[in-house]
TrEMBL record:
<keyword id="KW-0058">Aromatic hydrocarbons catabolism</keyword>
<feature type="active site" description="Proton acceptor">
    <location>
        <position position="166"/>
    </location>
</feature>
<dbReference type="Pfam" id="PF13378">
    <property type="entry name" value="MR_MLE_C"/>
</dbReference>
<dbReference type="InterPro" id="IPR018110">
    <property type="entry name" value="Mandel_Rmase/mucon_lact_enz_CS"/>
</dbReference>
<feature type="active site" description="Proton donor">
    <location>
        <position position="324"/>
    </location>
</feature>
<feature type="domain" description="Mandelate racemase/muconate lactonizing enzyme C-terminal">
    <location>
        <begin position="145"/>
        <end position="242"/>
    </location>
</feature>
<dbReference type="GO" id="GO:0006518">
    <property type="term" value="P:peptide metabolic process"/>
</dbReference>
<dbReference type="InterPro" id="IPR029017">
    <property type="entry name" value="Enolase-like_N"/>
</dbReference>
<dbReference type="InterPro" id="IPR013342">
    <property type="entry name" value="Mandelate_racemase_C"/>
</dbReference>
<dbReference type="GO" id="GO:0016854">
    <property type="term" value="F:racemase and epimerase activity"/>
</dbReference>
<dbReference type="GO" id="GO:0009063">
    <property type="term" value="P:amino acid catabolic process"/>
</dbReference>
<dbReference type="InterPro" id="IPR036849">
    <property type="entry name" value="Enolase-like_C_sf"/>
</dbReference>
<keyword id="KW-0479">Metal-binding</keyword>
<comment type="similarity">
    <text>Belongs to the mandelate racemase/muconate lactonizing enzyme family.</text>
</comment>
<dbReference type="InterPro" id="IPR029065">
    <property type="entry name" value="Enolase_C-like"/>
</dbReference>
<dbReference type="InterPro" id="IPR013341">
    <property type="entry name" value="Mandelate_racemase_N_dom"/>
</dbReference>
<comment type="pathway">
    <text>Aromatic compound metabolism.</text>
</comment>
């Protein structure tokens, strides 16, 4: 049985402004969830979003309020012994929507379950197929020269050798020229992708993607509005360069519909957008059955959400486009006793039980939002 559910907001400045078409981030807010069982086993989960309500339908504040008002009382009211699947069935039946909050709670419950079994979380999700995941870096300073210098530094440090560029906030030609300049500066061996974060109309997509394809760009992420899945389908059919669904992908149901419509070559699987780690694995299975390639996405989570995602992605049979699990590296503060291990362009998936990380609770106490 569960004894307590605590939800904590932690605001951490980013190492530099992170410029997307929907907002410019200077801070990331982590919603940390700590669930404790009657026997004293502790599980942690995390939810984040990008720029309050700029990116998605849930904000850090709504996640916290809904966990405290609905999820926590429900968990604490469970008196009969329920396993994880039965508990989550009850949550799904009682609470609509709220995918990010559900993901945070599910992560904490799975952390507990894996700790009770003394297994890494990946084994509870079906078993890991890899111990390391390739991790790209997003260049989003908004300045071409700064982005080139940042990319060169990352390559030299052996931290990242694949880059995603955030575009869509400037006039189209300005953005395209910026991307091509970076591609030229970094050379043929470095994979460059773009994320338009749904900023372009269909006509802009046609012009922009044609130029980006000709310029050697490898992947075009969510170029058009979330609802415009017909546009995404037409772009996927029209261009050879890979088209990826990100914001349009909101869990297994949408994965099924997008696959049915042939709306994307690649799915950006995100644990929060999917509504949980189990659902993210279901999205990956649908993609596999439909012949769609996979990419491990992020909502720029801190270390808890990032490593939870890594456990899920480590179970995917194929991860053709790698991952973007760099969230913690964008933050100026560390909330783990030992930071996540990034080396040789990869993130190491821990072997210890549960999430396999140790939380620095003193640090969280120091950083938590007080009012
Ligand atoms: C997004 O839309 O992909 C992920 C990486 C990044 O830089 O922004 C996020 C959101
Ligand atoms: Mg994206």
């Amino acid at each position: 049985m569960y004894k307590s559910v605590e939800t904590i907001l932690v605001d951490i400045p980013t190492i530099r402004p992170h410029k997307l078409s929907v907002t410019t981030m200077q801070t990331q807010t982590l919603v940390l969830v700590k669930v404790t069982t009657g026997n004293g086993v502790v599980g942690w989960g995390e939810a984040t979003t990008i720029g309050g309500l700029n990116y998605g339908e849930e904000s850090p504040e709504s996640v916290k309020a809904n966990i405290e008002t609905y999820f926590a009382p429900l968990l604490l009211s469970i008196k009969q012994p329920l396993n994880f699947a039965q508990t989550f069935k009850l949550i799904r039946k009682s609470i609509n929507g709220n995918r990010f909050a559900k993901c945070a709670i599910q992560t904490a419950l799975l952390d507990i379950q894996a700790k009770l079994l003394n297994l890494p979380l990946s084994e509870v999700l079906g078993g890991r197929l890899r111990d390391r995941l390739p991790v790209l870096w997003t260049l989003a300073s908004g300045d071409t020269d700064k982005d080139i210098a940042e990319a060169k530094k990352m390559i030299e440090l052996k931290r990242h050798n694949i880059f995603k560029l955030k575009i869509g906030s400037n006039p189209l030609q300005h953005d395209v020229d910026h991307v091509i300049a970076i591609k030229k500066a970094l050379g043929a061996d470095i994979s460059i992708r773009v994320d338009v974060n749904r900023a372009w109309s269909e006509l802009e997509c046609i012009s922009g993607i044609q130029q980006l394809q000709d310029g050697g760009i490898d992947l075009i992420e969510q170029p058009c509005a979330i609802e415009q899945t017909e546009v995404l389908t037409r772009l996927t059919q029209r261009f050879d360069v890979a088209i990826m669904a990100d914001e349009a992908l909101t869990g297994p149901d949408s994965a099924y519909r997008l696959a049915h419509q042939h709306a994307a070559d690649v799915f950006a699987v995100k644990v929060e957008q999917s509504g949980g780690l189990i659902e993210a694995c279901e999205v990956a299975k649908i993609a596999k059955l439909a012949g769609i390639d996979l990419y491990g996405g992020t909502m720029l989570e801190g270390p808890i959400g990032t490593i939870a995602s890594a456990h899920a992605f480590s179970t995917f049979e194929s991860l053709a486009f790698g991952t973007e699990l760099f969230g913690p590296l964008l933050l100026t503060e560390e909330i783990l006793k030992t930071p996540l291990q990034y080396e040789n362009f990869e993130l190491v998936v821990p072997q210890a039980a549960g999430l396999g990380i140790e939380i620095d609770e003193d640090k969280i106490e120091q950083l938590r939002r007080k009012a």
